[in-house]
Amino acid sequence: MALLQISEPGQSPDPHQRRIAVGIDLGTTHSLVASVRNGIAECLPDTVGRVILPSVVRYTGEGSGRQIGFDALTGQAADPANTISSVKRLMGRVRSDVHDVDNLPYTVLDTPGMASIDTCLGPKTPVEVSAELLATLRFRAEDSFDDDLFGAVITVPAYFDDAQRQATKDAAQLAGINVLRLINEPTAAAIAYGLDQASEGVFAVYDLGGGTFDISILRLAEGVFEVLATGGDSALGGDDYDRALAHLALQKAFADKAPVPESLSGEDKANLYAAARRCKEALSADGTHEATISCPLDVGDCQATITRSAFAVATDHLTQRTLQAVRRALRDAGLEKSDIEGVVMVGGSTRMPVVRDAVANLFGQDPLTNLNPDEVVALGAAIQANQLAGNNTGDALLLLDVIPLSLGIETMGGLVERIVPRNSTIPTARAQDFTTFKDGQTALALHVVQGERDLVTDCRSLARFELRGIPPMAAGVARIRVSFTVDADGMLQVDAVETNSGVQAHIDVKPSYGLSDDQIADMLRDSYATAEADIKARAVVEARVDAERMILATQSALNADGDLLSDDDRATIDTHMAAVEAAKTSDDAAHIEAVTKALATVTEPFAAARMNRGITQALAGKNLNAV
Ligand code: ADP
Ligand code: MG
């Protein structure tokens, strides 16, 4: 009888067998999965050879109950209400945060925590819909390797906040995927081009997809990518070019009787946009100068021939909008066009010659276009996944991303103490010590906020928790260490510990909904615009807090040792205290500081006398050797 070799599940019988790790680009319009095989990253095709999976899920209630990808896309025109596209825009968002939500072809419900979609199979969350797409890609990978998936690197836009990243991770979990890491899309694109192999440099990643435009400025230093600035427009992409072209085609076909595309029936509109998209894509082919569009509509056939130059004119306002965002991002990063060493083109819409030319013009250099712009993000993610899975121990790329907005904690007077500054590379851990404000204070409320402004009311609240059970101590004696830990995926944990007693509290920050990229941009713009006002406001609040602390400390000293004072001294201190009390409401930081300082000065002899008494009491009854 031969001995069978047995291995535990998940444990490879051959220690040299590689682990199956993939990169997944979970896109707004398209998703892809890629893997490194024989040292080369490549996108994995479906059974009929297509690498792209349209990010579309249609709930049918028949058979398996749903169609995914191309099948779902086919049914979209006939069944728009149950065909979910662009679900990425809803990830980790509440309904009111979603731009143009009423114009989506399906019904978005205002469910608490995260918006959801009303379908014939009941409400579906964006996490569930994304999980369908991710599971499809997972099965594709497992089928092509005939093996279980070890894990995946999934890409997210650089501006995705905690809630959006968490939603993406949740979707992966639901799809049974072990997430090795979430990385930023522009970082993945830069890796695909091997820019991480350079020693250093500043790069721009221009990503024009189906419905979104993102520009990211990355700096590579010592093998680490840092996001210097992000910008873009979450409602600008290839779809807008389709609409502009549809408009142009209607005008050519029907002249002054032309309807506007928006006025067509749902099905006509969908068919016309699809025809416009085919025409647009045909116009991108090398050497093509014109293409025809042909689409039967209720109002008659829309037949037109579109030249490249007519298309360029009709869409120039869209291209210009992307360039404006590029200039803004450069300004945010404090850079000139000439500082940019390379420009990476990402997204299917960067195949359009009008776009390539405009970008080349702006930067004064040809952008990198030799990789397939649909695939480049997935390819970079695959390279990263291969490394994280330990398949490629040769070169260790230390890859870091940054957090988009500062993280901090509310302190006395509604001020924000920034703990992790914006653009800190992640993973990161930072700590800061705080103390209690009042004598005998046994609990401390901690309020975690995100934003660049100095006042809590101008920042976004992420979480609140309490540290309880602090032993009663005099104000200022407790040492409360608050630590922020941001992991490689951008998820935040906050810990608070009172170091004398060891009492502690902890919170995982999972905000109930996310910030839109527009909100992030607004918050950043606000912080630049209001920096000076903030500094003033902060100074006033700080002065008030100091004044209050001084009054409390003096009062508690008077209560304990007031008998040490002569009547005159006591009267002087009372007068000064009243002055500080009166000044507290003033908006003049210098004045508040002056009276607070005066109170500190007049109480100095009193403090010295208290100290003497304290020492005498401590020594009483003890012999010197014991001290
Ligand atoms: P996303 O990242 O938003 O999922 P993609 O990067 O896949 O989007 O880009 C999809 C967009 O690219 C669509 O608007 C599509 O029409 C456009 N696109 C794809 N190929 C071409 C082409 N040859 N010419 C012009 N646009 C194209
Ligand atoms: Mg994309």
Overview of this protein structure:
This protein is α+β, with helices and mostly antiparallel strands and 627 residues long. It has four domains: 21-236 and 318-400, ATPase, nucleotide binding domain (Nucleotidyltransferase, domain 5); 238-317, ATPase, substrate binding domain, subdomain 4 (Actin, Chain A, domain 4), CATH 3.90.640.10; 403-515, Substrate Binding Domain Of DNAk, Chain A, domain 1 (Sandwich); 525-619, Up-down Bundle (Substrate Binding Domain Of Dnak, Chain:A, Domain 2). The chain is built from 14 helices and 28 strands. The strands form eight sheets. Strands 1, 2, 3, 4, 11 and 12 form a six-stranded mixed sheet that branches. Strands 15-14-13-18 form a four-stranded mixed sheet, with helices on both faces. It starts with 20 loop residues before the first strand and ends in an 8-residue tail after the last helix. Residues 1-16, 394-398 and 623-627 have low confidence and may be disordered. The protein binds adenosine-5'-diphosphate and magnesium ion. Residues 27, 207, 209, 347, 377 line the site of magnesium ion.
